[in-house]
Amino acid sequence: GHMLKMEADFRVLLVTLNALNTNLSTESKLQDRNALYPSFGYLYPEGTKELRKVWNDTTVRAALEPYTKYLSLFDQVKQFYEAETSVTEGGKSVGQFQSIEDLI
User: Fold this and answer.
1) What is the pTM of this model?
2) Average pLDDT, the chain
3) Buried (b) or exposed (e) across 81-102, using 16+ Cβ within 10 A?
4) CA 104 – CA 28 distance, rounded (Å)
5) Are 52 and 32 contacting, i.e. CB atoms less than 8 angstroms apart?
6) Rounded CA gap, 22 and 28, in Å?
7) Which of 14, 31, 33, 64 gives the lowest tally of CB atoms within 10 Å of its CB?
8) Is the pLDDT of residue 95 over 70?
9) What is the spatial distance between Cα 24 and Cα 85, in angstroms, rounded to a whole number?
């Protein structure tokens, strides 16, 4: 059970972080993104419910505050996802940062 719950939580975080700064974080597309979330895990139901509402780094951070382990993980990887967005706009390379996949 523990491994499946952890995998479900990482899936929620992966979907959330990969959708940031894309059209999947717009209000009209949140339902599409949220359909990808599993309905079990340590974050489920309260954490998943809060993460379903997020659209930027600040709201992700607020949703993860009760989950210190996941908040710490988010703080470690958020630069990767910010840099990934800026690369498409001619910004810095993502190679200097770690993704959530690198850490799990």
Assistant:
1) 0.81
2) 87
3) bbbbeeeeeeeeebeebebbee
4) 31
5) no
6) 12
7) 31
8) no
9) 14
**Closest by alpha carbon to 78, among 54, 47, 50?**
54
Whether the link from the prior residue into 66 is cis, omega within 30° of 0, is: no
Total number of residues shown for the chain: 104
Model pLDDT, residue 15: 94
| pLDDT tens by residue, 37-90 | 999 999 999 999 999 999 999 999 999 999 999 999 999 998 887 776 555 555
Show the CA angle centred on residue 18, arms to residues 100 and 80, nearest 5°: 50
Report whether pLDDT(36) > 60. yes
Output the pLDDT for position 81.
79
Please say whether the beta carbons of 73 and 16 come within 8 A.
no
87's tokens: 């690369």
Q: What is the DSSP letter of 36?
A: T
Residues 47, 59 contacting (CB under 8 angstroms): no
